[in-house]
Design goal:
Length: 431
């Protein structure tokens, strides 16, 4: 990876793209330090630090800690991600949108992108209003006038829209995927604070140094697992029949149909965590029940550190993995495309037998990928519970979602640099 970045830096064209990407991320980090007015950030930070693995805690992690400081980029890039997911699902469910995406060409893609932007602003407006309502309910505001509410909500919406624009600029003039790079920068920015917290615990004697070694080894094993599964794929052999067009003979070559083990990425974890932690998040908005009450007993039973929550979380990840795999990979469509182009899978007739075989392979691969996502998501929760019981560490700032995003974006960026260097070599050869 370091060698790839060094080679890319030696190329003037790629060096400009890397510098542009770094400047965009620098602007993002500066915006993360500018708090909106009328908010008591000390009270807000104390409250959100106890949110743990709830949806509010996830928002705080994805925004790089800006959510707990009520900065202009507090909503982060989450509204755009949610909007993209919703439009993607609607594209499958609504026939006009599906035709626009498939048959509209470049113009259709631009229209869907415009719809996604408008949906982003709408979602950011709803989240900003909910965020303001929570801060007002817990008396975290220094001013509760209509003008203060307008300033706070507009600042959050403008910050989220500006982040969306910066992500698109990175896509066009920088390196890698802009949205992923912003997420990557936000998550990485919390690493120094986590390391400092662990170091302070060791110095104060509240934590033994052996636990630090175990934590580091656990993270390294998690990274190795993510890298291994991220590149894993099932290759189905495909043979193309020979056909004669005029005086030329086409086809006859052998290739394969790649099926990635983790084709859904981190989306099943994000959706499962959002839904599984929804009851606890709602309770956080309206107020946590007092000790000794029935409501408190129910709250503890569905808390993000409870066994029922972990079981429900794991099952939801598997369910959403199958859901996204079905959306992204259509066996019937793949079978029809192979049949039209004269391709077939050895041992299976074109048409329904081929689609049935692809569906069977897809089901097995998705199950393995879903279990992998479940393990990556659940392991940090179990580790946090163990550390709390034996080492006295109450809040382990490591999440499976964060590790998957960081490792995935790093691999994606390196692949983007390598592909651009390869294209440059081909261009030089042709010229």
């Amino acid at each position: 990876m370091i060698q790839t970045v060094r080679k890319a830096w030696a190329i003037p064209e790629l060096r400009k793209k890397i510098i542009f990407t770094i400047l965009i991320l620098l602007i993002y980090r500066i915006g993360n330090a500018i708090s909106v007015p009328y908010v008591d950030t000390a009270l807000l930070s104390t409250y959100l630090d106890s949110a743990g693995t709830s949806y509010l805690g996830l928002m705080n992690v994805m925004s790089g800690g800006a959510f707990a400081m009520a900065t202009v980029f507090a909503l982060g890039i989450q509204p755009y991600i949610n909007s993209s997911i919703i439009i993607q699902l609607l594209t499958v469910a609504i026939p006009p949108l599906e035709r626009m995406a498939r048959e509209g060409g470049e113009e259709g893609k631009k229209k869907i992108q415009a719809i996604t932007r408008y949906a982003t602003v709408a979602i950011a407006l709803l989240q900003a209003f909910g965020y303001y309502t929570m801060m007002r309910s817990y008396e975290m505001l220094n001013n509760t006038s209509i003008w203060a509410a307008l300033v706070i909500i507009v600042s959050f919406v403008a910050g989220s829209s500006f982040l969306m624009w910066m992500g698109e600029q990175v896509n066009e003039f920088g390196v890698g995927n802009g949205i992923s790079m912003i997420l990557f920068a936000g998550i990485i920015s919390r690493v120094p604070a986590g390391v400092s917290s662990i170091y302070s615990s060791i110095v104060s004697g509240s934590m033994h140094w052996a636990w630090t070694i175990l934590i580091v080894l656990g993270i390294l094993l998690l990274v190795v697992l993510i890298v291994f599964v991220n590149d894993a794929e099932r290759r189905i052999p495909v043979q193309y029949a020979k056909r004669q067009v005029g005086r030329k003979m086409y086809g006859g070559q052998s290739t394969h149909l790649p099926m990635k083990v983790s084709m859904s990425g981190v989306l099943p974890i994000i959706f499962a965590q959002s839904i599984a932690s929804l009851p606890v998040t709602i309770w956080s908005f309206i107020g946590i029940p007092e000790e000794g009450t029935i409501s408190r007993t129910i709250y503890n039973a569905i808390d993000t550190a409870s066994i029922p929550y972990m079981v429900a979380y794991f099952l939801m990840i598997i369910g959403f993995s199958y859901f996204y795999a079905t959306i992204q990979f259509n066996p019937v469509e793949i079978s029809n495309n192979l049949k039209k182009n004269g391709g077939f899978i050895p041992g299976f007739r074109p048409g329904k037998p081929t689609s049935d075989f692809i569906s069977k392979v897809l089901s097995k691969i998705t199950l393995f990928g879903a279990i992998y996502l479940g393990i990556v998501a659940i392991c940090p929760l179990i580790a946090g519970k163990v550390l709390e019981s034996f080492a006295g560490i109450s809040n382990l700032a490591i999440g499976g979602t964060s590790v998957i995003i960081v490792v995935g974006v790093a691999l994606e960026t390196v692949n983007a640099l390598e592909s651009q260097m390869l294209m440059r070599q081909y261009k030089g050869f042709l010229e």
